[in-house]
């Protein structure tokens, strides 16, 4: 792991089932994550991914690359455009810092509307 | 109290009461979570560990929260709901994990409000950003912290009817407001609100106006009800600030007024946005203008907003 | 049209009163509460259950006359009635019983009301059932419930606000009623708030329910039952207790009347239906407000007590706040009200416990007895079509 390393891209098909099952798995019962009619009524185009799921996806992306010996120390994300049902979310990442066993990765998740998530993940790789 | 004052009060209250996770850290929830997210990292099951990004999950309020009393974000959400900023999106989450959680550990979380900024124009509509800080504990050991920011915003206008989706759509569950019993004598009124008209019964014989409507004219006895469309203006004849008990479809407190219309009849309706600028603004004689609150395809309620003679509030 | 010199005056009397304990959780069925109260009232009168041939209750009671008749072993009934409009019917049960007795339709009529209003169905909550009845009342409720106005307190608050605006009454003025009720309850061992008086400051410190009403402006919620035995004045004279003779009994509905939401007809500062009742009571009995020794005025919410004083002619319109000032409605005052503690202090038995107290005042057996021999006035639920009685001893 060296600064400037890029992570292989990961694409996630964000189906309604994906949105609903991740919302329920994160115990987030806000209607905008499972009920399209209510989501529309609240001004959204469709149901959309919840932030806990996005955080989980960022973790999955980084640890999927770093391996099972990586321990996640920090995930800081900022949400941009919503990730509605039927979007494809593509993650890309770059290592920006490496110090001792710690490694900082900048992550972006994009869909057809733009950047859904940008963030920083800090991991520690156990020897 | 306005939003800024309410925010300051909630922030001053500091940490809310600690909230225990419903269940200890457990394998079934972890496996559900991994499966839903498509995460195949074997680390967690092999080590009896929870994925760090799950920390917030353990203390989510759930589908039917027992109580959100003492939770600053819930308190602030109520304030903003009342002010009409009813929709929410999370915008930032910064989580730091001091260590991984192990199966069987019981976590609890303490949260405090850091700030509430607004109103701000955003792509979603006007809204407020509310930032909270949370710390998760196992016993007295802090195991994770989070800075969490949401945008509470006012959804723009009533939505267009849903286009027919390719697959059969699920029936929309009824919105939880009390619905009027509509009779043949009163259907014109509710058809009117759905069409954006405030209709007053007018006797087809003697012309007397009347609300609430009925089949006959109490003035002349004629059974010839017709209607006129009201100008949609009036003034507060009396009003109530409702604090208790809960009312379906309403966040407490809210203001309901008896409005005397310019045409002379009276009508009961909620005063919208009253919390936004303080219920003290509502007074007997205050001019109001009608608005139509579309609940769903079957019901549109007439409601009122204080009309500012100067135009901009 | 208001009836003229009434044939009913003095024909019938309340010969027995009975009640269960007043609680927050009776632990038994409403029918059982009804049976216990009816039996107690018959015992009080010294009349056997088998002699009962008439039963009257009112619309929100869940116990049919025939069920109560079966349980007490009443046998055959020749008169039974279920009066409408909830608490507004309390005194009307006695009116109907008196009419039945006076016209020979029945000899012994028992009026009853039993409810688990605290542990069971609570009237103070928003009633989805009331909002969805496929009746004219359901349609009426469609003009308020969907708009968020759906509790008794809120419906009263709307009129109370207007009354304050027009006449300058304050929350403290409403509080005087609560203070008087609780003072009287404090010396009534049967009252829920026995030995728990309140001060005006405590009233002012109580939380808002529906502004301008505070918690202590609202009656309590209770489980319990009350029953009253009505028979002819002649028969009552020979029974165990001194009779409370029914000098006047009336029902009243105003013009353009609604249930709790008569918002469309006038200045919203009075209770015209109680005016209808009052005019009949004075005419039937020949009494005037100044004759009244003590009154039990229905007090589910304090502002309507002020309006009743005005509608019944105890003071001019808008002046009730001056009339009640300085302890005038407390024991020892000009017109002690609700000497049992009212529904704020004793219990909320939908007005029937107030009639029992009026009977005790006539008998001279109230724990807060008001001296004198003037008649006792009692009213039923306000904001709805209502009723009232004037009782006095045998003269």
Entry keywords:
heterotrimer, B: about 325 residues, alpha+beta, Thiol Ester Dehydrase, Chain A, OB fold (Dihydrolipoamide Acetyltransferase, E2P), 2 domains, five-stranded antiparallel beta sheet, elongated, C: about 400 residues, alpha/beta, Peroxisomal Thiolase, Chain A, domain 1, nine-stranded mixed beta sheet, two-stranded antiparallel sheet, 11 strands, about 15% strand
> In CATH's first tier, which class of the largest domain in chain B applies?
Alpha Beta
Briefly note the structural class of the backbone of chain B.
alpha+beta
How big a fraction of the residues of chain B is strand?
35-45%
Mean pLDDT of chain A equals: 92
The CATH homologous superfamily of the largest domain in chain B is named Hotdog Thioesterase
CATH architecture of chain A: Roll
Q: Mind explaining what this structure looks like?
A:
The complex is a heterotrimer of chains A (127), B (313) and C (395). Chain A is elongated, with a radius of gyration of 15 Å. Chain A has three helices and five strands. Chain A has helices spanning 16-25, 36-41, 51-66; strands at residues 6-14, 70-79, 87-99, 102-111, 114-125. The model of chain A has no long low-confidence stretch (mean pLDDT 92). Chain A has 127 residues and is an alpha+beta fold. Chain A has a five-stranded antiparallel β-sheet with strand order 1-3-4-5-2. The longest helix of chain A has 16 residues, at 51-66. Chain B has helices at residues 3-12, 27-37, 43-47, 72-82, 187-194, and strands at 19-20, 87-97, 107-122, 125-138, 141-153, 199-203, 209-210, 225-229, 233-242, 254-261, 266-271, 287-296, 299-306. Chain B is built from five helices and 13 strands. The two termini of chain B are 17 Å apart. In chain B, the strands form three sheets. Chain B has a five-stranded antiparallel β-sheet, with helices on both faces. A five-stranded antiparallel β-sheet of chain B has the order 11-10-9-12-13, with helices on one face. In chain B, strands 7-6-8 form a three-stranded antiparallel β-sheet. The model of chain B is unreliable at 159-174 (pLDDT under 50). With 395 residues, chain C is α/β, with parallel strands linked by helices. Chain C starts with 11 loop residues before the first strand and ends with a strand. Chains in contact: A-B, B-C.
């Amino acid at each position: 792991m060296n600064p400037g390393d890029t992570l292989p891209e990961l694409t996630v098909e964000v189906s309604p089932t994906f949105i609903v099952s991740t919302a329920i798995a994160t115990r987030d019962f806000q209607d905008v994550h499972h009920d399209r009619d209510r989501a529309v009524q609240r001004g959204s185009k469709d149901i959309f991914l919840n932030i806990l799921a996005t955080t989980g996806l960022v973790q999955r992306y980084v640890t999927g690359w770093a391996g099972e010996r990586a321990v996640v120390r920090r995930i800081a994300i900022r949400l941009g455009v919503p990730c509605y049902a039927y979007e494809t979310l593509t993650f890309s990442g770059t290592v920006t810092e490496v110090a001792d066993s710690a490694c900082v990765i900048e992550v972006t998740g994009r869909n057809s509307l733009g950047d859904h998530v940008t963030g920083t993940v800090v991991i520690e790789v156990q020897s | 109290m306005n939003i800024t004052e309410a925010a300051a009060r909630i922030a001053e209250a500091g940490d809310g009461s600690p909230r225990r996770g419903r269940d200890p850290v457990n394998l079934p929830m972890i496996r559900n979570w991994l499966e839903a997210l498509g995460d195949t990292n074997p680390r967690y099951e092999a080590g009896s560990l929870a994925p760090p990004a799950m920390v917030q999950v353990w203390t989510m309020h759930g589908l039917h929260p027992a109580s959100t009393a003492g939770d600053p974000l819930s308190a602030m959400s109520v304030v903003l709901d009342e002010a009409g900023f009813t929709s929410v999106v999370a915008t930032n989450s910064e989580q730091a994990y001091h260590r991984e959680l192990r199966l069987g550990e019981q976590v609890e979380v303490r949260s405090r409000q850091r700030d509430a900024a607004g109103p701000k124009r955003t792509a979603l509509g006007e809204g407020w950003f509310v930032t909270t800080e949370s710390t998760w504990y196992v016993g007295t050991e802090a195991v994770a912290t989070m800075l969490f920011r949401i945008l509470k915003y006012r959804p723009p206008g009533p939505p267009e009817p849903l286009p027919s989706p390719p697959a059969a759509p699920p029936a929309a569950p009824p919105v939880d407001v009390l619905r009027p019993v509509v009779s043949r004598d009163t259907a014109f009124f509710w058809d009117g609100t759905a069409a954006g008209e405030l209709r007053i019964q007018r006797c087809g014989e003697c012309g007397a106006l009347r609300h609430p409507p009925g089949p006959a004219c109490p003035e002349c006895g004629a059974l010839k009800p017709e209607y006129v469309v009201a100008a949609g203006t009036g003034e507060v004849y009396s009003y109530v600030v409702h604090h208790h008990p809960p009312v379906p479809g309403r966040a407490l407190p809210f203001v309901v007024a008896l409005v005397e219309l310019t045409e002379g009849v009276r009508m009961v309706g909620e005063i919208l946005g009253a919390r936004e600028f303080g219920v003290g603004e509502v007074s007997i004689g205050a001019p109001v203008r009608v608005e139509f609150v579309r609940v769903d395809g079957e019901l549109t309620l007439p409601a009122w907003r204080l009309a500012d003679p100067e135009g901009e509030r | 049209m208001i009836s003229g010199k009434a044939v009913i005056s003095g024909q019938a009397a309340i010969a027995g009163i009975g009640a269960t304990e007043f609680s927050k959780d009776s632990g038994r069925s409403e029918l059982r509460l009804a049976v216990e109260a009816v039996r107690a009232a018959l015992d009080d009168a010294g009349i056997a259950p088998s002699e009962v041939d008439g039963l009257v209750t009112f619309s929100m009671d869940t116990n049919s006359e025939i069920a109560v008749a079966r349980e007490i072993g009443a046998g055959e009934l020749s008169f039974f009635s279920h009066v409408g409009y909830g608490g507004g019917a309390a005194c009307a049960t006695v009116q109907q019983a008196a009419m039945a007795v006076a016209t020979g339709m029945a000899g012994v009529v028992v009026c009853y009301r039993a409810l688990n209003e605290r542990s069971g169905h609570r009237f103070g909550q928003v009633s989805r059932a009331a909002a969805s009845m496929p009746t004219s009342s359901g349609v009426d409720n469609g003009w308020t419930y969907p708009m968020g106005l759906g509790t008794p307190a809120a419906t009263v608050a709307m009129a109370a606000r207007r009354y304050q605006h027009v006449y300058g009454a304050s929350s403290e003025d409403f509080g005087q009623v609560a203070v008087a009720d609780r003072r009287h309850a404090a010396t009534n061992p049967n009252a829920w708030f026995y030995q728990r008086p309140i001060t005006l400051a405590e009233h002012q410190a109580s939380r808002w329910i529906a502004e301008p009403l505070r918690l202590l402006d609202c009656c309590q919620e209770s489980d319990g039952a009350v029953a009253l035995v009505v028979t002819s004045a002649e028969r009552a004279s020979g029974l165990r207790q001194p009779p409370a003779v029914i000098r006047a009994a009336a029902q009243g509905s105003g013009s353009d009347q609604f249930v709790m939401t008569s918002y469309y007809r006038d200045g919203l500062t009075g209770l015209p239906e109680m005016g209808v009742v009052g005019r009949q009571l004075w005419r039937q009995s020949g009494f005037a407000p100044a004759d009244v020794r003590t009154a039990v005025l229905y007090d589910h919410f304090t502002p309507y007590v002020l309006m009743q004083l005005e509608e019944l002619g105890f003071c001019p319109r808008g002046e009730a706040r001056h009339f009640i000032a300085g302890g005038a409605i407390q024991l020892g005052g000009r017109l002690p009200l609700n000497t049992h503690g009212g529904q704020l202090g004793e219990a909320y038995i939908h007005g029937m416990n107030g009639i029992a107290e009026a009977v005790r005042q006539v008998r001279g057996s109230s724990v807060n007895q008001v001296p004198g021999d003037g008649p006792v006035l009692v009213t039923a639920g306000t904001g709805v079509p209502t009723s009232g009685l004037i009782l006095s001893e045998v003269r």
